Amino acid sequence: MARLLPASEDLNALEPTGAGAAADWGREIALWPIEALRGADPVLGLAVLMIIALLAGEAVRRATGLPRALGAMLVGALASPLALSLVARAELDAWKPLIDLAVGLLVFELGARIRPRWLRDNPWLTLKSLAEALLSGLAVAGALMLLGIDHQSATLAGAVAMAGSPVITMAVLGELRPRGQVTERLLVMTAVNTVCAVLALSIWQVAVTLDADGFEWQPALAGVLYALCGSYLLGAFAGLLLERLSRQIRGTGLATLQLALVVIAAMLAAQFTVSPLLSLLVAGMVARARMGHRLQVEPQLGSGGAALTLLLLLTLGLLSTLDGLLGLWPLVAAIIGARLLAKVGTVLLLARPSGLGWRQSLGLGLALQPASSLPLLLTSATLGWPAHLPAPPAEPMQALLIALTLLQLSGPVWLQLGLRGVARESDARPD
After folding, report:
1. CA 255 → CA 113, 235, 308, 389, distances in Å?
2. What is the arithmetic mean of pLDDT over 63-84?
3. Domains of the chain: total
4. pLDDT of the residue at 235
């Protein structure tokens, strides 16, 4: 435990002997809060950081007009080993159940806000969603291979780059409360490209085993099919169960029911080693399809969910990494640039057929820029890494993590720029 104040003998040693001694004493006093946080219990330290993140979010909102989520993530980044090293990443283990629950709540909310019939009624929207995800992955993979990265690492990075960030998107939308065609399409396309990323990562794992000597691809394929089918079945069951039980519950009890089912579905997904991301996304979509307007989902499932979302945003900041940026900047720039051009270009190319104007399409393309390592982390946790396969080279994987960090931290800015600045979608209610 770090000492909280200078000891008496230290104070005696710092008797006025000159400007240098006074400066040293002042510096020690000024650094006392940082040292106290470093030595605090991990749970207590993270709870204090949550309060600081909440205040920082309000300060960012008032000073710049940007979403509060940006302030929370910046506090996490400053407290991470990237800057002040107030909280070690290993110390997040005590909070992992709450962090997983926060992810589950936001993914379920995303699924519940999507109307699956819209994809059937507007085939151009379906085509645009699939094309945007596929071309983003191909563009990133191609750019990295042009820079000399091996095809396995490049395609892995491309698969991860397909996905948006459901977490940041839902957190910022809950604050901005935009309404309009661009927002609805953003929700649909974020869900579709996230699913595409998980599928692409699954296919990538099977494909890599074909090139590995002494490793059979059939067990890998069976594991992937089990995880994908099991995720869909678990999500469908949870959505149907919500529809059935909601007939007996009204009022605030419905939010409690939704929260309980999210917890159960996430725990069962971990128990049966299927994807919690897909399971909860499917659960929300099935519930919406079955219940229609009867399904009322509060943003972040109420005030309790809002606190969990703040914890999640803080954690995303704590997991930020920029190690090696100076040496890897060409790869990082290639990932970010290729992904930006692919997403914006595809949306603009299919703007008219899908029923969207040029300005709205540009706003949608910019709002799709937030990225996350969530698909990679959850897919690897579900499917595992084959023991007989060599680990990917460190250099391209670190470049990918740096790119994801930058797109994650700037995510609230992209969303506000795209939805309010360019597409001009806003809600009349005050903050």
Report:
1. 15, 18, 15, 44
2. 90
3. 1
4. 94
